[in-house]
């Protein structure tokens, strides 16, 4: 019987077209994180070297500006976050706060390194998929910024909501 986590991962753009055996290798080394309502997976500016796949629950992705917290987006089961860390290893650009009890799979840079050592082609495909996902998000933000500039209409309300973390 095929594990449910394999199906969860393969339904996501980041792991699309990745073979079952490669995903099983990743899952063998991945950690499962449980975060209660109100807890955080990580905070803005924390060191970063892993991504998360949300199995259950709901989170808010939050940025801070002048001591105010703003929700950039809300994510649910089947969504991933933190994947930029696997590309640039820079500090976290936002906080991720649990709005409900959460269970997530944490995949670290070391987990991907082990996959690279075993199957460079599957590793490369994951890296390309992450790059595509980051580019998709960049295009969406570019479009919002362009519309704001051309329409001279503020669109901040489309992407930012006050938060209470």
List keywords for this structure.
single chain, 165 residues, alpha+beta, Jelly Rolls, five-stranded antiparallel β-sheet, four-stranded antiparallel β-sheet, 6 helices, 9 strands
Summarize the structure.
Strand 4 and strand 5 form a beta hairpin. The protein has one domain (4-109, 118-162): Jelly Rolls (Sandwich). By secondary structure, it is of the alpha+beta class.
Round the mean pLDDT to the nearest integer and report it: 89
Domain tally = 1
What structural class do helix, strand and pairing data support?
Answer: alpha+beta
CATH topology: Jelly Rolls
Number of strand segments: 9
Low-confidence stretches: none
Largest sheet: 5 strands, antiparallel
Discrete helix count: 6
Please write the string of helix (H) and strand (E) elements.
HHEEEEEEHEEHHHE
Tell me roughly what share of residues is in helical segments: 40-55%
The second-level CATH architecture is Sandwich
* Terminal Cα span: 41 Å
- The CATH first-level class comes to Mainly Beta
In spatial order, strands of the major sheet run 2-7-4-5-9
| CATH H level, superfamily name | Jelly Rolls
